[in-house]
Amino acid sequence: MTETNPPSPAQDRPPARPAVVLLSGGLDSATTLAIARHEGFACHALSFDYGQRHRVELEAARRVGAHQGVAAHHWVKIDLRAFGQSALTADIPVPKDRAQAEMGRDIPVTYVPARNTIFLAYALALAEVQGASDIYLGVNAVDYSGYPDCRPQYIEAFGRMANLATRAGVEGRALKIHTPLISLSKTAIIERGLELGVDYGLTHSCYDPIPDAGRPLGARPCTRCDACLLRQQAFAALGQRDPLLQ
Amino acid sequence: MTETNPPSPAQDRPPARPAVVLLSGGLDSATTLAIARHEGFACHALSFDYGQRHRVELEAARRVGAHQGVAAHHWVKIDLRAFGQSALTADIPVPKDRAQAEMGRDIPVTYVPARNTIFLAYALALAEVQGASDIYLGVNAVDYSGYPDCRPQYIEAFGRMANLATRAGVEGRALKIHTPLISLSKTAIIERGLELGVDYGLTHSCYDPIPDAGRPLGARPCTRCDACLLRQQAFAALGQRDPLLQ
Prior knowledge:
By secondary structure, the first copy, chain A, is α/β, with parallel strands linked by helices. Chain A has helices at 27-38, 56-67, 100-103, 115-130, 152-165, 167-170, 186-195, 226-237, and strands spanning 18-22, 42-49, 72-77, 134-136, 176-178, 210-211, 219-220. In chain A, the strands form two sheets. A five-stranded parallel sheet of chain A has the order 3-2-1-4-5, sandwiched between helices. In chain A, strands 6-7 form a two-stranded antiparallel ribbon. The interface between A and B is large, with 44 and 44 residues.
C-alpha cells in the first residue's frame, strides 16, 4: 500500500512523549523521523553541521524537519574536519559507478571516524536535557555493511553504555536507541516511507552533487555515486521514479 | 618520594606509540598526562572549548600541555551551551563551603549531560586518525561519585562500544580506555603527580574563579567551591601547600 499524504494527527492519544531523532536530510533519516512520529513521539530533530562539503545536506534536513512537523529542530556545529580522512569532509574523490557487490566489501572512503558515536553522544545529551528516553537513528546494516558503526552489535553496545552515562540510567529510566531501518533493504525503507507520507523529493542522498541553481536545494544528484545508485535501484524495484530525478 | 623535576626522556626505548590524552587543564588531567608520558606514549592532548564560563581553563590546558611536552595538542570547539542545564556552562550558582560528605551524595549541578561521552567520542575519532590504540581520561570515582559518567562500569561499557565503533575494532586492534586515577583519592593523585614532576601551579580547578589580573591565568581560585575544597584538603594531607595559593 502506498499513501502519499502525511498521516493526520491522532486525536485520541495522551500528550506525546519526546524523542530525539537524528536527521541528516537523507532518505534513511527522513524515513526514521516518519516512523518515530508514527510511533507517537514528539520529535526533537537533531542535525549536525560537521563541515560537510555539501551544504545542500543541511538545507534538505531543514526541509524534511519542517515538512514532517517536528516539535523542535536542534542544530549543532561540530568540526570533524580537524580529524580529516574522509571523502565526505575532505578532498578525496568519491567512487563512481560501482557494482552493488563492491559497495559493502570494505570500509568505504566515505567513512567518517567515530561519526555515529559522536552524533549519538550529542543525542544522549539532548535526550537528557529534554527528558527523553528514546533516540532514533536511521542506520542500516544491509546495503552498507562496510561502516563499523552501522552494525547491530555496535548499537547495542552504545545503548548499554548510554544507560550508564546519564541521570536517566542512575535514576532507573531506561534509555532506548531505536534503529528501525537497521535490517531493512533500501527498497523496504522507501516502501515504508511512502506509506507514511515521506516526501523523498525533499531529501538528499548524493555524495557528489552537481550545482544546479534551478533546483530547490541548489544541486542535483550525480546519479553515479554509491548512494545515488542504491537509491535508483530501490525506487526501480518498487516500480517508482525517484522524485529527485523527475 | 617527591620529585619536582619532570622526568628526562628515556634514551633506550623504541619510538613511542601514540596515545590520546583528554586534557582539561585541571589537576586530574595534568596528572593523567604525566602518567601516560611515564608509560611511554607520545601524547596527543585533546582539549575542548565547550562554552566554559571560564576561559582560564583553556589557558591552563595550553600551559600544562606545553610544560609536559605533548607530541601535539588538538583543540575542538563544541557547543554544549545549546543543551543548557549546568553550572559549568550556564548561569546557575556554584555551591560553596560544602562539607565533603555532601559533595558525592547527588548528581551535582556542575554535571554536564553526557559530557564524558561526547569527549570520549571525539577522542575515539582522533585515536582512529592518529592510529592510536590508547585513550587516557582522568576521571575519578572516589571524591566525585555523583557524576554517573565517572564510574568504572561506564568506562568499561564505553570501551566495549568503542571496540565495535571503529576500524580498529573491525581490524582486530584492541582499543583501550585508560583511567589511571579512577580509584585514587585526591591526595594519592597529587602525590603521584608530584613524583612525576607535574607543576600544579599551571593547573586550574576552581568552578568559580575570581578575576585577578596579577595572576598568570588572569584569575585566582575562589577557595570555597567543591573543587577548591577537595584540592586544599588533599595538599594539606600531604603536608604541602597548593602552589596556586602561594
